[in-house]
Amino acid sequence: MQQTRSQVTERDGLYELEAGGDVLDSPRYNHDMAPTKVRERTWNKWHITALWVGMSICVPTYTLGGVLTAYFGLSVGEALLAILFANVIVLIPLTLNAFPGTKYGIPFPVLLRSSFGILGSNVPCLIRALVACGWFGIQTMFGGLAIHLFLGSVFEGWKSLGGTGEVIGFMVFWALNLWVVIRGAESIKWLETLSAPLLVAVGIGLLVWAMPNVSMTELLAIPPKRPEGASVVSYFAAGLTAMVGFWATLSLNIPDFSRYAKSQKDQILGQIFGLPLTMFLFAALGVVMTAASVKLVGVIVSDPVTLIGHIQSPVWVAVAMALIIVATLSTNTAANIVSPTNDFQNIAPKVINRTKAVLLTGLVGLVLMGHELLKKLGLIVSDISLETVYSNWLLGYSSLLGPIAGIMVVDYFLIKKQRLDLAGLYRDDVYPAWNWAGFLAFGVPVALTLLSLGSDAFSWFYSYGWFTGSALGGIIYYGLCVMRAQPSAVKTAV
């Protein structure tokens, strides 16, 4: 016989829900969005470290140094410091927003119901989902190119397909990504744990190949591309903001993964071990490889897929491309599909299950890359560069996501005091449908960011968007909640 009311139990600081009819029959609940059971929280610190290694070692990370030197006017040394500092900074919202996921076993959209409302949570969720689908398409383009080059190294006739071969590779890689995520969290954990040591080996191999062809002293002495005599502070701060923006997405939806962590200690140590150093070293490798590419292949090449494609040995190209395919797959599945899968389910959990949400994510990513795919097929002609879109996006989307991160941290730690009504997050009678405090705290920084685009005096607000947005969003949310005095969820929390 089904129990009527849900029960919440606690084991060593971890809470789990025994769902009763009040939750099971709720339109806000399905099995995939349900809190994980304590027995399902099997990821230790090394699994989480492997997750970050797997996500960090990817083509976009490799190109970050080049983006900072070419678009943000930093020297090589300044660019690498910006990457290191940014990833130390982003650890703060990552670890803080991971806390409720670990404690209550809930995914990102369910946590947002506390700060934006049961229905209102869909707005920030869909903003996050759209960004992830865009990145999914970009990463799938890189993975598809790797498959095309792999097949070209194995079958001589494949090379003649050109852009058509790249599109076929895109579709194969697209389907492979969706298959991994449909299989569930254990499949992702297995992929990340397997790929992490392989990816480290790839990095070491590329470094051994490149080092005889580059002088680190000369590389670090290259002058920055900014006006002579200009202060480094504003350029460095803008680059730092963009690099924080690189993982601004994961700083929001980290509960999607921390809900599987064994303990708070595991999620904290795993992120500290896995993120900052991996990002720094692989970005540094990208700088070295790009500098060495002139001597290695005769031209400057800024991405590893194209660079390795210039190697004359088909065997080494095939091996390297296979490993790059694994690298891109491990990044794409975890960083860019898991979140929109949960976000789309949050719209209507009884209608959209995990499989449908994964397919919807794939479809949106495919549509967003439609322009690039048609260009490769020769059906349209365009000067729009994927690299330009990628580099400009970093700063822009961090400005939008910063306020959400600030609101989430303030809501959980200062307003709710780390106490949530777990069953209430899946019903309509505890938390409001729309929490207007959350929307005002989100809307004001976003509006100021948009206004600052047309004002030289306030351009700094956009340039430092993640920092200004997250701080202002958190402050406004705290002030509104204090004025409102007593959020009902604080009284009824378990």
Write the layout of secondary structure elements.
Elements: E1 7-11, E2 14-18, H1 21-24, H2 45-56, H3 59-71, H4 76-89, H5 91-104, H6 108-116, H7 122-154, H8 163-182, H9 185-210, H10 216-221, H11 232-246, H12 248-253, H13 255-258, H14 264-274, H15 276-297, H16 304-309, H17 314-347, H18 354-368, H19 370-376, H20 386-415, H21 436-452, H22 459-463, H23 465-484, H24 488-492
Antiparallel strand pairs: 1-2
Helix pairs in contact: 2-9, 2-14, 2-17, 3-4, 3-15, 4-11, 4-15, 5-14, 5-20, 6-7, 6-20, 7-8, 7-17, 7-18, 7-20, 8-17, 8-18, 9-15, 9-17, 11-20, 17-18, 20-21, 20-23, 21-23
What this model shows, in words?
By secondary structure, this protein is mainly α. The chain has one domain: Orthogonal Bundle (Hydantoin permease), CATH 1.10.4160. It is 70% helix and 2% strand. It contains 24 helices and two strands. It has a two-stranded antiparallel sheet with strand order 1-2.
